[in-house]
Amino acid sequence: MQREDISAATAWLRLAMVPGIGPLLGRQLVQAAGSAEAIWRKPARAWSDIPGIGPRLIHALQQSRAAQAEAVIEQCRQHKIRILSPSHDDYPQALGMLDDAPLVLFVRGDASALQQTHCLAMVGARRASKEGRLIARRWAQYFSQQGVSIVSGMALGIDAAAHAGALAGDTATIAVLGSGLLAPFTAEQQQQIAMISARGCIISEFLPTTTARPEHFPRRNRIIAGLAAATLVVEADLRSGSLITARCAAEYGREVLAVPGSVLSRNHAGCHQLIRQGAVLVETPGQCMQHMGWQEGGKTATKTYAPASAEERKILICMQNGPVQIDNLAETCGLTIPHLSPILLALELQGVIERLPGSRYLLNVELQDQ
Question: What is the mean pLDDT of the chain?
Answer without folding.
Answer: 90
